[in-house]
Amino acid sequence: MSSGSSQDIRGEAIHGTPRSGPGSSLVKTPAHLNSSGLRIEYAEGKGRGVYACREIPAQTLIEISPVLLFSAAEYEEHGRHTVLDHYTFVWRDGHMALALGLGSLFNHSQNPNVSYTIDPSTESINYVTSRRVIPDEELCIFYGHKLWFDPVGTTDTMPADAIEERDDGWGGLSGVADDEDDEVARGANEPFDSFADGDPSQLVPEEALPFKRLKLTPDEEEEGMDSVRTEEAWVVDLPDPRLAATMLKWLKQSGLDTLSMAHLKRIRKVDDKMSMVLILTREHPQPPAFPENIVLPPPYVLTVPKTAALTMTSLKLKSSLWPTIYAPRKRFEPEPWSRGKVRWACEAIKQVIKQAREAGDKGEIPIAAYVPVPYDEETRIATHMYEPISAHDTRTSLCHPLRHSIINLVRDVGELRASTLHPSSTPTLPSTPAFDTTSPPHQLTTAENRSVNGAHYLLTSLTLFTTHEPCIMCSMALLHSRVKEVVYMIPMEKTGGCGSLTCVPRLEGVNHRYVVNVWKDMGKEWVEQNGLEVNDACDA
Predict the structure, then answer these.
(1) Cα(30)–Cα(28) distance, rounded to whole angstroms?
(2) Which site in 100, 113, 156, 501 is 20 to 30 Å from 432, CA atoms measured?
(3) Are 37 and 64 in contact (CB under 8 A)?
(4) CATH class of 198-217+334-416+457-539
(5) Residue 85 contacts residue 2 (beta carbons within 8 Å)
(6) What's 335's DSSP letter?
């Protein structure tokens, strides 16, 4: 859009009132021929919009709009001074794009039922339903947070001079607590309102964040021999250096060449003596048996470094035990959070508290999990996450010990992803005289392949909020789901898998690590007052 947001869109029906001029008296709309079951309809106070004539399944391709491109100079000099400025997308290379067909008629919604993707290769925009659409329902997209109008039906009409470009800074969560008008709810929300005001783009210092970030890897390195972590491994001496190649080949064939040895060099030379490390004793308690055609002395146990060297000092110390790989890494550098993103997190926390309290009122264990719509638009598009997902504990009602809130949420996300990857009906393409029914099936582009492949990891790039520290089972489920970060409020000292009893993403050998943030100052009294207390031995 011409305001500078790369995904923002301006449509005709986005003003608080219809435009003046001939369009303002429009009561009849043109017929629109298509095979997707769509019609153009006029709504008082909104203008024209796109509506469903019949039920449309999720993931149905309903429109491919070609675009008319304007150069940056042409648009700056002419286009932005005309009505076109209300309909354009920002395209790459500074171009502006006018969506033709139905593309400019989709209205805005905070809870859209249509997602869109820009395709520069064909100079078009694809519109796909993100959920099931019922007959007569309006089809809407999400314009972004920088709106220059008040969506009809969401706020009182404002004077024209008071309508300006705004960003709520909350990732679309600004209204989640509108119905929380009782005193208890207000008391529960008070600790999370300190970031309600201020510039959303302002970065918040680490010490001022309302949560503490757990460090998954230590900053300090083994700089003294007494601090070097070690373990034992099987080692064999090689009387003939020519046996090294034979033994390396045998290690691969025997299955002893494991990832746990990747930080160690296989061969050590001391003067004229050559030795080879075989495998860690914890993985192979008994000495390895060599092939009959290889004559070697018996293997013996030797102490070796447990991890790679991160500094030159530790490299020297560790290599005195056994030659070690040097793998320096950056010190812990947490991702900066803006004030707007912190407000987004506060609203998500308020929502998960609400879900947990409602579950408790129904007789369930008051534990809930919540994945909001991502704060930044790039992640929303990459994850196709346009609606929040929440779940609460159902162990009591279902009499099932594994129905934890996080397991329920992961299951719900899985069902959503499954409907995305395997839609119930074939996407319906707009009819066109040039359509060739004998054409080969659509081949996925590299970007589409990445999207489909990534969808197998259910929570990739997403942030999960939960009232209580996840248990070890749930922490491992989150690891397998490739969640980006977890934010929890109440530590579970006896059962927690994200920092208390153990920290699953910190364990050695795991193939994914997610960020763990623990909300500050959630004391026992606050937990009790808000109905979130659970047995301290409960697996959350």
Answers:
(1) 7
(2) 113
(3) no
(4) alpha beta
(5) yes
(6) P
- SS3 label, residue 84: helix
Smallest CA-to-CA distance from 375 within 146, 518, 170 is with 170
Does the pTM of the predicted model rise above 0.85? no
Q: Retrieve residue 495's tokens.
A: 């059962």
Distance CA 21, CA 37 (A): 30
Closest listed residue to residue 355, CA positions, set 409, 410, 413: 409
Q: Are 8 and 146 in contact (CB under 8 A)?
A: yes
Query: Across the strands, what pairs with 89?
Result: 97
Does the domain at residues 38-141 carry the CATH identifier 2.170.270.10? yes
Question: Which residue, among 339, 383, 348, has the nearest Cα to 369 in the 3D structure?
Answer: 348
Q: Which amino acid is at 8?
A: D
Task: Write down the domain spans for the chain.
Answer: 38-141, 198-217+334-416+457-539, 225-321
CATH topology agreement for domains 38-141 and 198-217+334-416+457-539: no
**Angstrom distance (rounded) from CA 245 to CA 233:** 20
| CA 44/CA 363 separation, integer angstroms | 45
Strands 485-490 and 463-468 turn out to be parallel
Q: Return phi, psi of residue 36, to 5°.
A: -100, 0
Q: Tens place of pLDDT for every residue, the chain, 540 residues?
A: 443 433 333 333 333 333 333 334 445 656 666 677 899 988 776 778 899 999 998 888 899 989 888 887 887 787 777 766 666 777 777 778 888 888 888 888 777 888 888 888 888 888 888 888 999 999 988 775 444 444 555 443 333 333 333 344 444 444 444 444 444 444 455 566 777 777 888 999 988 999 999 887 655 567 788 888 899 999 999 999 889 999 998 988 888 888 888 899 999 999 889 999 999 999 889 999 998 888 899 999 999 999 888 888 989 999 999 999 998 766 556 788 999 999 999 999 999 999 999 999 999 999 999 999 999 888 888 888 888 899 999 999 999 999 999 999 999 888 876 665 544 443 333 333 333 333 333 343 444 444 444 444 688 899 999 999 999 999 999 999 999 999 999 999 999 999 999 999 988 778 888 999 999 977 888 898 889 999 999 999
